[in-house]
Design goal:
78% helix, Methane Monooxygenase Hydroxylase, Chain G, domain 1, mainly alpha, single chain, 173 residues, 5 helices
Length: 173
C-alpha cells in the first residue's frame, strides 16, 4: 500500500505546482500588459521596474518548471512507468477520469497562457523596436542639422566656381 500513498502525495504536489505555475503565468501576463502600456507611453522608469519584476517571475517559473519535472519523474518511477521524459499528458492518461480532467484543465490553461504571453511579448518587441527606430531617426535628424558645408569661406561671400568647359568630339581628337 505504500507506493499507492506515495503516488497520491506526488500527484497532490504536482497539482499544487501546476496551480502555482498557472498563477505565475497570470502574473507574468499582467506585467507584460503593463510593460506594453509603459512602452507605448514612453514611461522608462516604470518600464525598467517592470522588466526587473518580469525577470524575477521568469526565474520563479524556471524553478517551478524544474520542480514539476522532478515531481513528474518521481511519480513515473513510483507508478512503474518506464518512460524517461514523462510529460503531464502522460500522467493525465494514467489517472482516473476526475483527476485526469483537473490536470487536463490546468495543463490547457497553462498552455493557453504561454501562447498569450508569447503574442504579448512579440507585440512588445515590435513596440520597442519602433521606439528605438524613432529615437535613431530623431538623433540622425539633429546630427544632420549640425552638418554644414565642408569648406571654409568668409561670411558674406560665396565661392563661385567657373563653368567647366565642355569639349565637343572635334576637340578631343
Amino acid at each position: 500500500m505504500q507506493p499507492y500513498d506515495h503516488r497520491l502525495t506526488l500527484l497532490a504536489a504536482l497539482e499544487d505546482q501546476l496551480v502555482r505555475e498557472f498563477r505565475a503565468y497570470q502574473s507574468l501576463i499582467l506585467i507584460t500588459r503593463e510593460e506594453r502600456t509603459a512602452l507605448a507611453s514612453g514611461d522608462i522608469p516604470n518600464l525598467i521596474a517592470l522588466v526587473d519584476q518580469k525577470d524575477h517571475l521568469i526565474d520563479d517559473l524556471m524553478a517551478l518548471e524544474d520542480t514539476r519535472i522532478k515531481t513528474v519523474s518521481a511519480w513515473g518511477i513510483a507508478s512503474s512507468i518506464g518512460k524517461e521524459d514523462l510529460t503531464i499528458a502522460d500522467v493525465v492518461s494514467k489517472l482516473e477520469p476526475a483527476a485526469s480532467a483537473r490536470f487536463s484543465r490546468l495543463r490547457e490553461g497553462i498552455l493557453a497562457q504561454v501562447t498569450e504571453l508569447r503574442d504579448l511579448n512579440r507585440g512588445n518587441q515590435a513596440l520597442a523596436a519602433s521606439a528605438l527606430d524613432r529615437v535613431d531617426a530623431v538623433r540622425s535628424f539633429f546630427v544632420s542639422l549640425g552638418d554644414g558645408p565642408q569648406t571654409y569661406d568668409v561670411p558674406g561671400t560665396s565661392i563661385v566656381s567657373a563653368p567647366q568647359p565642355t569639349y565637343g568630339l572635334e576637340q578631343w581628337a
